[in-house]
Amino acid sequence: MAEHVISIIGGSGLYEIDGLADVEWRRIESPFGRTSDEFCFGSLDGQPVVFVPRHGRGHVLPPSEIDFRANIDALKRCGVTDIVSLSAVGSLREDLAPGDFVVIDQFIDRTFARAKSFFGKGCVAHVSMAHPVCGRIGDALIAAGIDAGMAPKRGGTYLVMEGPQFSSLAESELYRSWKCDVIGMTNMPEAKLAREAEICYATVAMVTDYDCWHPGHDAVTVDKVVGFLLANAEKAKALIRSVIPLLSVDVGPCPQGCRHALDQALITAPDRRDPEVLARLDAVAGRVLRRSDPGADA
User: Annotated catalytic, 100?
Assistant: First the structure.
């Protein structure tokens, strides 16, 4: 197996990647549900890449109906080690204009209708989300953006709302008072699940509008968002082509510890863990479950 298998999760407006060789679309089964679509397997200059259209090709899934657990679990089963997530967002700051790209470093999760963990009754775990994205991938994204002739901004807080409706003015002003930078509907629980699956994860937020707070702009409309999505899609594809070679370089263990996030996370005693739950966790948590199973080497 290759040292790195890189996944690109494409948000609104990004349903394919140009330039991949040996392309094959196929469905990956997951015990947690049905993935958004078939995954696109290919390679770029020899580097294995797995592309996921988050909303499905043709944008058939609203944010609340995406099975994030199935997507992340299936990526883990494919051997994915690094995820670059792209997401269309609204800006909550004057200096983040439509067309800008932001490499996010924090989230506030305001979603409420989504399954947010692989763990639960029968096997409880608590992972740290203090630093929810992988700094190594973030560094690579900034370097790749510069190489691609872009000027991505580093750092920002992404407020993840449930949707599918856009914000009210009162909500938009509330989130601005919290010092949030952008707002979108899709990166939670995606980032939490990637951490539970011990996959390095980072987000690029693609600004399409000023939400509804900006006095010089009309309220958000789908037509306006789609216009900027089309423009951003070409930039996003250029960014992807630039970042994949950078992520292909082996730099040793993740310095942030993303790939060992479960080392101290499982709290349920081994003899009290539900075998049916453990069976579903074979990909996500197999590394630590095998280590803690007294009979694993029998």
Answer: no
